[in-house]
Amino acid sequence: MNSEKKPREKVPKDIPEYIFSKRWLTPEETALYLSMSKHTLYEKVEKKHIPFYRMPHSPLLRFDRLALDAWMKEGKNGTLQKKRNVVLQLPGP
Question: Which residues of 37-69 are buried (b: 16+ CB within 10 A; e: fewer)?
Answer without folding.
Answer: eeebbeebbeebbbbbbeeeeeeebbbbbebbe
